[in-house]
Design brief:
- It is a single chain.
- The protein is mainly beta.
- Helix content is 5%, strand content 55%.
- The protein has a four-stranded antiparallel β-sheet, with no helix packed on it.
- β6 (69-78) and β7 (84-86) form a beta hairpin.
- The longest helix is centred in the middle third of the chain and has 10 residues, at 125-134.
- It is globular, with a radius of gyration of 19 Å.
- The two termini are 24 Å apart.
- Residues 1-29, 35-196 form the Jacalin-type lectin domain.
- InterPro entries: Jacalin-like_lectin_dom, Jacalin-like_lectin_dom_plant, Jacalin-like_lectin_dom_sf.
- Belongs to the jacalin lectin family.
C-alpha cells in the first residue's frame, strides 16, 4: 500500500497463456514542493535502498549498534491527527546489539538535523587486513538534533574519528522522513526528507 507522497509508477505480474495470474504494483516517492530530498550519506553504495517516504514528522527513533558501528535505524512517524506510522524494517536486529530508543514530544518536537561520521573500523590482525582490503566504511557516530535538544545514539564529542563527517538538514526546515542504504544486518547510508518548519 502506498503511503505519504508515494506514486504508482508501474505494474508487474505473471501470466499464463492468455490470462494474468498475478498482479503487483511499483511505487516511488514523489517529492513535491516544498519538500526536498537530501542525499544519503555514509559508506558502501552497493547495498539495498530503502525509503520510508514523507510524513508530518518523526515521533520515535530506534537505533542499534555493535562494536562502535551503527547497525540499524528505525523510525516511527507522526501523520495527520497525530496518528503514528512505522517505518521500514530494513535491517535485521540481532540479539546482543545495544539498542537506544527515543520518543519525541508528539506535535511539539521535530528533528532539525542529523549529524554523523563514517569510516573504516580498524580491528586487529586478519580482520583489519580484510577491512582495509574490502574498503567497507561504517557509520561510527550518529546524533539527532531537535528544536528541544540532542539525542546522541553513538559516539561522543571528545572521540577522535577517522573518515568523514556529515550533516543532514537545512536551515529553517524539519526532517519529515528518512531513506538510505543497508545490507541485511547493517545500515550504511542515511538520508532525509525536509520541509519548511512553517509549512503545513
Amino acid at each position: 500500500m502506498a503511503k505519504g507522497f508515494d506514486k504508482l509508477v508501474g505494474f508487474r505480474g505473471m501470466s499464463d497463456d492468455n490470462r494474468v495470474t498475478a498482479l503487483g504494483a511499483n511505487f516511488a516517492v514523489v517529492v513535491a514542493p516544498p519538500v526536498k530530498k537530501l542525499e544519503a550519506k555514509g559508506g558502501n553504495p552497493g547495498c539495498e535502498e530503502w525509503d520510508d517516504g514523507i510524513h508530518e514528522g518523526v515521533y520515535k527513533i530506534i537505533v542499534s549498534s555493535e562494536h562502535s558501528v551503527v547497525k540499524s535505524a528505525k523510525f516511527e512517524y507522526a501523520d495527520r491527527q497525530y496518528q503514528t506510522v512505522n517505518g521500514n524494517d530494513h535491517v535485521k536486529i540481532i540479539p546482543g546489539y545495544d539498542i537506544k530508543e527515543f520518543k519525541l514530544l508528539l506535535g511539539d518536537e521535530y528533528i532539525t538535523s542529523v549529524e554523523g561520521h563514517y569510516g573504516q573500523i580498524h580491528n586487529d590482525g586478519i580482520a583489519r587486513e580484510l577491512t582495509e582490503l574490502i574498503g567497507y566504511k561504517y557509520i561510527t557516530m550518529l546524533k539527532f538534533k531537535t528544536n528541544k535538544g540532542t539525542y546522541q545514539v553513538l559516539g561522543n564529542e571528545e572521540e577522535d574519528y577517522e573518515g568523514e563527517s556529515f550533516v543532514l538538514g537545512m536551515e529553517g526546515h524539519k526532517i519529515v522522513g528518512f531513506h538510505g542504504m543497508s545490507s541485511y544486518d547493517t545500515l550504511y547510508r542515511i538520508g532525509a526528507y525536509v520541509k519548511p518548519i512553517d509549512s503545513p
